[in-house]
Design goal:
- The chain has one domain.
- Helix 1 packs antiparallel against helix 2, helix 1 packs across helix 3 and helix 3 packs antiparallel against helix 4.
- The protein starts with a helix and ends with a helix.
- It contains 4 helices and no strands.
- With 110 residues, it is an all-alpha fold.
């Protein structure tokens, strides 16, 4: 159960970070409103706060989070931008999530 909770927290953290980066991109590259910077700031503040909720050492959390972030980012590409992941993207996601799991499981033993 604790691993599922950690994974969910990583996914929420990744979504907050991606939204915080996507909204300014809409503003700058797609001619969106400057008002997009308000939810951008809120999303990035949420991202930082979510990272503080992990009990493990910060470096280990960031390393494991990075693997999950890659998977969420490619799913965002698919669902929001409409670009389907390639077979190599799926393989990369599997490798990254497996690496994140090794880091987190190994970190619990120490």
């Amino acid at each position: 159960m604790e691993y599922a909770k950690t994974l969910l927290l990583f996914v929420l953290t990744a979504l907050a970070e991606i939204v915080g980066c996507y909204l300014p991109w809409l503003w700058l590259r797609q001619g969106g409103s400057a008002w997009l910077l308000v939810p951008t700031a809120a999303s990035l503040a949420l991202f930082v706060w979510l990272l503080t909720l992990h009990p493990a050492a910060a470096g280990r959390v960031y390393a494991a989070y990075g693997g999950v972030y890659i998977g969420v980012a490619l799913l965002w590409l698919w669902k929001v931008d409409g670009i389907a992941p390639r077979a190599t993207d799926w393989a990369g996601i599997a490798l990254c999530v497996a690496g994140a799991a090794v880091i987190m499981v190994g970190g619990r033993e120490a």
